[in-house]
Amino acid sequence: MFACGGPADPGPVPRDSLYALALSLETSTGAHVGLDVHRGNPTLIALFYASCANVCPMTVATLQQLEQDLPAEQREGLRILLVSVDPARDDPAALTDLRARHGLGPHWTVARASDDQVRELSAALGVKYRALADGEFAHGAQVALVDAEGVVRAKVDLGAQSPDALRAALAEL
């Protein structure tokens, strides 16, 4: 979904853009935004859930280190979007708590969407996850880098790969 009308209308997105998905996200502040919330900036997108004890904190820490290691100009332009796979529990209060626990900066958006919309995003990203009987989720640490128009330029599984591929792809944007 993208903004419509007026002089700020960025126009249509490319056909292969994730921003063509009509997803509605609710952020940690309770604001409702589209998946294109960071259109115009390179954005790292990852799926997570706030009560995760292992993979998600490692993913967040790795992305924070990647962000910190970037040259100032790249760091200023980069955005990071985390979308919860557990929207039933990850309400705005839980998302706000996660932001505080990890000290996430202003370029980070933490959000949730409906189960169906999270599945749609995960399919578009090629990310698999599933709910377990104990309320946890089986999932990996995949991160996608999209360009300013939402086209995926790199994908990395941080559980098996170095974030160097993300750094290299960012340098090319």
TL;DR?
With 173 residues, the chain is of the alpha+beta class. Helix content is 30%, strand content 24%. It has one domain (18-172): Glutaredoxin.
Which structural traits does this protein have?
disordered N terminus, 173 residues, alpha+beta, Glutaredoxin, 7-stranded mixed sheet, 30% helix, 5 helices
Figure out the total of helices: 5
Question: How many strands?
Answer: 9
Helical fraction equals 25-40%
CATH class: Alpha Beta
Question: What is Rg?
Answer: 15 Å
Strand order of the largest sheet: 2-1-5-4-3-8-9
Largest beta-sheet details: 7 strands, mixed
Beta-strand percentage? 15-25%
> At the fourth CATH level, what is the homologous superfamily?
Glutaredoxin
**Overall 3D geometry?**
globular
What separation lies between the terminal Cα atoms? 23 Å
Mean pLDDT across all amino acids:
91
Q: What would CATH call the architecture?
A: 3-Layer(aba) Sandwich
Q: How many structural units, i.e. domains? A: 1
Uncertain residue ranges: 1-7
CATH T-level fold name: Glutaredoxin
Q: Which structural class matches the secondary elements?
A: alpha+beta
- What's the SSE pattern? EEEHHEHEHEEEEH
